Each structure stands twice: as structure tokens, then as C-alpha cells.
UniProtKB/TrEMBL annotation:
Keywords on record: Coiled coil
PROSITE patterns: PROKAR_LIPOPROTEIN
Lineage: Bacteria, Pseudomonadati, Pseudomonadota, Gammaproteobacteria, Alteromonadales
Pfam families named in the record: DUF6279 (PF19795)
Coiled coil: 118-145
InterPro entries: UCP028200
Organism of this sequence: Ferrimonas balearica (strain DSM 9799 / CCM 4581 / KCTC 23876 / PAT)
Name by which UniProt lists this protein: Lipoprotein
Length: 279
């Protein structure tokens, strides 16, 4: 739930960073992120390093060609007028990329978590709960108007990365989306609480490998099962509203914005080609 807009929302792919940069630093970035939550011993660090190497090799060989093919289709589709069905299909495919990655990671994650001591489990859960408390405090201190203003600013910044400065009509499409979408804050926070409860249960019962795998699959691969009908319904409706906003922004794009978007997509595809074929 932590981790830019046209391409990111449609593709969810290494947002804002060159894939070459990300891949060059994965063996440092991942352990650094893990270290924020749990202090690993030497054997666990070795296991994590091995897992990273294995997963990166699989990701380059299997996933990057899928990302590249998706990007190529996306670029072709962006050359024509968009419709809601097409935009939603790209969003769904982007989600599938994400969940497929977690599904592949599961066996290694199970083994790593099963090696945790009780002290490591408590350390991790303390940080997870601290993050959640800080998030609740952050959003609790903001009015609805402040949240809408921040969302507008973030979406504008993300879009500018891909197409450049937005026109008043494009800015209005963003503002309209953020003003009229369902306010899911309380449902999202409740979902996070439920997620953390399941995660805690999984860690405390980590000795049961099958149970741990089932819980991690639920949390990482099929998290919609935790969200409840009301939350899911509002998410889907917000996604349709977002798709319509993106269609409006796309329809209002100038030739200059189109050229910039194509340059960005070409550069991203070139990076993926490089990584796929790199020895």
C-alpha cells in the first residue's frame, strides 16, 4: 500500500525511476528496506541475498518481457482515442503483474519468515504497528479539503513526469476525479487493521508452513478477499471514475504532450530491452 500517472496507474512499473537504475541497486535497496523492519542475523542475510539474486534472474527472464509487451500495446492504444473498457483492462493487467510477482516470491518468503526468532517477530510487528499509527495520525490531522488538495498535487506531479505541464482542462479532470470519488479513508484504514491482524497471526504461527503460506497468499496475492463488499464496490467505482478522468486528459493532450509521452515510453522500453538482453 506504500508505493506514480498515466503509465504508472496503467502499468505500475518501476514508477519514476529508470529500470536500469533500480536493477543496478536491488541487491542494496531490498536489504536496506528489510532492515527498517527486522534485524537479520548473518545466515538470514545470506538467505536474503540468495533469494534476491534468484528472483531478479527470474524477473528479468520472465516478467520484463511481459512488461515490455504490455508497454508496446499501451503505446499503440494511446495513439488512438481511449475508452473506459480499454483503460480498465490496462489497469487490471498492471495489477496482475504485481500479484504475479508476490506469488513467485511466496515460497522464499515463507522460508525466511519461518527462520525468524520470537524477538524478530516482535521487532517487525512493532514497526508495522508504528507505521500504521503514524499513518492514522497523518490522515486524522487532515481535513477532506486538505486530502483532496494533496491528491490533486500528487496526480499533477505524476502526470507532468509523463506528458509535461497540464492544461486547465486536464487539471480540472484531476480535480473532478478527486472531488467526486468515494471517500474510502475509513474503509482503507479498517482494511489495514485487518491486514495487520492477519499478518500478526501468520507470524505468530509461522511454524505451520501451510498456514503461513495461506495467510501470505491472502495478504499479498489475493488481498481483495479481505476488503469487504462495500470497500471493493467503492474501489471499483473509483477506478471507473479514474479511467474516465484519464480518458479526458488523454483527449486533451497537445502534440507536444504526445511527443513527450512517446519519448518517455520509448526510453522505458529501451531500458527494458537492455535489461532483458543484458548478460
Amino acid at each position: 500500500m506504500k508505493r506514480c500517472l498515466l503509465v504508472v496507474l496503467l502499468l505500475g512499473l518501476l514508477a519514476g525511476c529508470s529500470p536500469r537504475f533500480v536493477y543496478g541497486w536491488l541487491d542494496w535497496i531490498i536489504p536496506w528496506q528489510v532492515d527498517d523492519y527486522v534485524t537479520l542475523n548473518r545466515d538470514q542475510e545470506s538467505s536474503l541475498d540468495f533469494m534476491i539474486g534468484k528472483q531478479v534472474r527470474w524477473h528479468r527472464a520472465h516478467e520484463l518481457p511481459l512488461y515490455l509487451a504490455h508497454l508496446e500495446r499501451l503505446q499503440r492504444d494511446l495513439a488512438e482515442p481511449l475508452d473506459q473498457e480499454l483503460v480498465l483492462a490496462h489497469m487490471q493487467e498492471a495489477s496482475e503483474h504485481w500479484y504475479r510477482l508476490f506469488a513467485k516470491l511466496l515460497p522464499d518468503l515463507v522460508r525466511l519468515i519461518q527462520s525468524f526468532s520470537d524477538e524478530q517477530v516482535e521487532e517487525m510487528l512493532a514497526q508495522v504497528n508504528k507505521d500504521n499509527a503514524e499513518l492514522r495520525e497523518e490522515y486524522g490531522d487532515m481535513t477532506l479539503e486538505e486530502r483532496i488538495k494533496r491528491a490533486n498535487k500528487r496526480m499533477d506531479k505524476s502526470m507532468r513526469k509523463w506528458i509535461g505541464k497540464l492544461s486547465p482542462a486536464q487539471k480540472a479532470a484531476i480535480a473532478d476525479y478527486n472531488r467526486n470519488r468515494h471517500n474510502t479513508l475509513e474503509l482503507w484504514l479498517a482494511y489495514r487493521e485487518d491486514w495487520i491482524a492477519h499478518f500478526s497471526d501468520a507470524l505468530y504461527n509461522r511454524a505451520d508452513g501451510e498456514r503461513l503460506k495461506r495467510e501470505l497468499t491472502l495478504l499479498l496475492v489475493t488481498p481483495d478477499e479481505l476488503k469487504g463488499q462495500q470497500y471493493l464496490s467503492q474501489i471499483l467505482d473509483n477506478r471507473r471514475r479514474l479511467a474516465q478522468g484519464l480518458i479526458t486528459i488523454h483527449a486533451e493532450m497537445t502534440p507536444r504532450q504526445t511527443r513527450k509521452l512517446n519519448r518517455e515510453l520509448d526510453d522505458l522500453q529501451a531500458d527494458l530491452e537492455y535489461l532483458i538482453h543484458k548478460d
